[in-house]
């Protein structure tokens, strides 16, 4: 249940309006991060994470007892969900069950209350379901791939996106790899965006078959990097910038400046614990993300 309270504290502004049950439940037991700790993290990063999760269909990785217990991906609204979580209807699936969105920090804390440890948005908004406003190229290193090679792959994706007139931004996945993300003015449809992302991946695999693959089926991943373009189809998701990961270490997917890529910052370097310090100490490397959007050229 959700209760309204008046807020006086300025450090944790609106988040106190949503009551958390079991605030001391350990979501990341090794790291000592509780449900309340996750809510505090989200309140701290709210201005940064909001553009990537507000007003978009979301898939949630829910872990009711934390990362050591059962986990499930949830795409649809459910009975009894917080009233701060907004059901949204896919205009192409009018008969289907509503999907999940949030509009504000209360909604995000509602997700925490629902044990959503990871947040995975669509690459389009619920204002314009059929025109993606970003491309996500997901770099998945196979076994035995050096971090330096993953960085090179990201730089090559960047080059190819920029050659196509797009701006490219990089973030850690919080898992094993990097994500290169290009903001789009939402003009092209999913088919064109998918085709483009696929062409980038296939181009890299064709030019450097010893380094890159573009299909999971090609199962020759050992020593190679999968340029996973499949995040770029209607209904697909990728983990949000700033979302934590439900894995040991409580890493988050952290936006980086291109110059920061190097041996010191691995894919799980930034965490729920150290992210707020980074955000306070460093400017926003993705500050220009939205203003850099351009339409995908045919
Ligand atoms: P890593 O660096 O470990 O690869 P990742 O977030 O990129 O981290 P992937 O396995 O490459 O993980 O998956 C990419 C994205 O695909 C995920 O972020 C998620 O949005 C989506 N995804 C993966 N598994 C599922 C699933 N079971 N159900 C729905 N979406 C999924
Ligand atoms: Mn990945
Ligand atoms: Mn992947």
UniProtKB/TrEMBL annotation:
Start and end residues of each DNA ligase D polymerase domain: 34-286
Gene3D superfamilies: DNA primase, PRIM domain
One Pfam family recorded for the sequence: LigD_Prim-Pol
Membrane-spanning parts: none
NCBIfam families in UniProt: ligD_pol (TIGR02778)
The protein's name in its UniProt record: DNA ligase D polymerase domain-containing protein
Species per Swiss-Prot/TrEMBL record: Paracoccus siganidrum
Lineage start: Bacteria, Pseudomonadati, Pseudomonadota, Alphaproteobacteria, Rhodobacterales
């Amino acid at each position: 249940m959700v209760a309204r309270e008046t807020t006086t504290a300025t450090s944790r502004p609106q988040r106190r309006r949503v009551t958390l049950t079991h605030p001391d439940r350990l979501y990341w037991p090794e790291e000592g991060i509780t449900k309340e700790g996750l809510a505090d993290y989200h309140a701290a990063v709210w201005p940064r994470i909001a553009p990537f999760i507000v007003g978009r269909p979301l898939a949630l990785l829910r872990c009711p007892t934390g990362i050591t217990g059962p986990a499930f991906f949830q795409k649809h609204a459910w009975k009894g969900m917080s009233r701060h979580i907004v059901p949204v209807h896919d205009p192409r699936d009018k008969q289907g069950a509503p999907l999940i969105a949030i509009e504000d920090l209360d909604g995000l804390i509602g997700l925490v209350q629902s044990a959503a440890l990871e947040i995975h948005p669509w690459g389009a908004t619920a204002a314009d379901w059929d025109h993606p406003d970003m491309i996500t190229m997901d770099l998945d290193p196979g076994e035995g791939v050096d971090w330096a090679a993953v960085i090179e792959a990201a730089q090559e994706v960047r080059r190819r996106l920029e050659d196509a007139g797009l701006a490219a931004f990089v973030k850690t996945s919080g898992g094993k790899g990097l994500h290169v993300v290009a903001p789009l003015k939402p003009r092209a449809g999913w088919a064109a965006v998918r085709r483009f992302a696929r062409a980038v991946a296939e181009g890299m695999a064709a030019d450097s078959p010893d380094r890159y693959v573009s299909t999971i089926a090609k199962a020759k991943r050992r020593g190679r990097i999968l340029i996973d373009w499949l995040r770029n189809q209607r209904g697909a998701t990728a983990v949000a910038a700033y979302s934590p990961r439900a894995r040991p270490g409580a890493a988050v997917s952290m936006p980086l400046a291109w110059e920061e890529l190097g041996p010191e910052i691995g894919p799980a370097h930034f965490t729920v614990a150290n992210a707020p310090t980074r955000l306070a100490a460093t400017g926003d490397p993705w500050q220009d993300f939205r203003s850099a959007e351009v339409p995908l050229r045919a």
